[in-house]
Specification:
Elements: H1 2-21, E1 31-41, H2 46-63, E2 68-74, H3 78-90, E3 98-103, E4 109-119, H4 138-149
Parallel strand pairs: 2-3
Antiparallel strand pairs: 1-4, 2-4
Helix pairs in contact: 2-3
Amino acid sequence: MCVNLKNIIYLTLFSLALSGCSVAYPENETVVNTFEENFEFTAVNKQKAMEKSLEFVGKINRKHPKSTYVIEYNTDESLFIDEFVIKIKHLGIHKLRFKLNAISEGKDISIVARYHIVEGKNCGSISLNNINNYSFGCSLEYNRRLSLTNPILGKE
């Protein structure tokens, strides 16, 4: 009797293990989109150019706090860029988030902003009503993709 009960327990555990491993998980539908916005100008009115440049960078920074910037400028505009860099640092943009490139042709100043948007399905919340249909790992995968596209930058 003890051997028969032992076999029944093993058979039950084995069938539970097999049924637990055969659950089909839905495919990951998280999508990472990279966007780029450009702001190019010739600095005729320096004050107006500074206002518009700071407005552009501030708008992007408010919506996407981990955006990065490439600032290309003609060497004749070095003083303008020095003042601009000081002002964007006061906006809270870390020096690792922007890159300066001196150019010799084209527009006097070009600011290129890049940012990522992670889109995924709504994972929802788990409850006893939807436990059979809940996609376990959905929020974990979303957070993993988010951290891969927006890594934490070093500190000064």
